[in-house]
Fold this sequence. Notes:
Number of domains: 1
Shape: globular
Distance between the termini: 28 Å
Number of strands: 4
Order of helices and strands: EEEHE
Strand content: 25-35%
Number of helices: 1
Radius of gyration: 13 Å
Amino acid sequence: MEQIDQRYLVQQNKIADGDTKPPVFAKVMRSKEGAFEGVSFIKSKEKASVLTIDQANEAIAWSAKKKPNAHEYITKIICVGQ
């Protein structure tokens, strides 16, 4: 059985906050069938979704397209241990 390389988180920082506030992390929402439905950003790194690189890119693309204030944030992919 092939091992799926899931070891990435999506992290967001508000540009206006600089380094004064902690980042938020992506929690991916999926249907019962496992289909991607969207992303919400939460403060808890432990509850954030651990993703493959393709899933992380999908989450970033969705949030850039669907969130009206996405331009106010720096969004990046980080490894779980960072």
